[in-house]
Amino acid sequence: MDIQLIHQFIKNALAEDVGDGDHTSLSTIPSGTQGRAKLIIKEDGILAGMELAVEIFAVVDASLKVDVLLQDGAAVKVGDIGLTVSGSTHSILIAERLVLNCMQRMSGIATKTHRIVSLLKDTKTKILDTRKTTPGLRYLEKWAVRIGGGVNHRIGLYDMILIKDNHVDYAGGISNAIKAAQKYLADQQKSLQIEIEVRNIEELSQVLATGGVDRIMLDNFSFDNLKAAVKLIDGKFTTEASGGITEENVLEYAACGVDYISMGALTHSVKSLDISLKAY
Question: GO cellular component terms (predicted)?
Answer without folding.
Answer: cytoplasm
